[in-house]
Design goal:
The chain has about 190 residues and is an all-alpha fold. It is built from 11 helices and no strands. The two termini are about 25 Å apart.
Length: about 190
Amino acid sequence: PVSGAEHELAHFWEIRGLAHGRMFYHGDKVAIGTILMTEMYQQVLALKPENLDWEKVYAERLPVAEYKEMLQRDFAEAWEALYSPNWEDTKTQELARRTGELVIPNWDRIQKEVPKSLLPMDAIREYLSALGLCQNPQELGIEAEWVEASLRSGREMKPHRYTIMDLAAEMGCLDSISRGILEKALG
């Protein structure tokens, strides 16, 4: 991943850090974000979208107003700076429905091509270890609540950029995958 979901997590943690007077190097946060998002890629790519109940996925989406309230809580004072008038256009059920229509017939190709751009988790950890970088959020001092909120809402850092977190959200599995990633990352 390059400038994708791992950067959205890093920027989310930066916003939280600024609000609490805690600063971290951007590269350190991206390294941890890369581990978390590589795990998300692996789990999303293991899914079979043709087995998903897409109508249930659409029906269970939070209404835009409730989703916006959640984002306001997660981003706190930074939400006003991030919010744009056309943001709500990217959250429609119809847009999510079209994603499903595009994903299902192309899933085999997605499963084949996307992993070619990902390093294996062992290699990522080996490189980070060789560089002396942290491999989990606690080592860096990122609070569990920040990690949880970033996995839930970090994709809104750059809503015009489509990442693995957006795909997971539109497939209705962002929350469940995020919970597993959070448990694994925080021990």
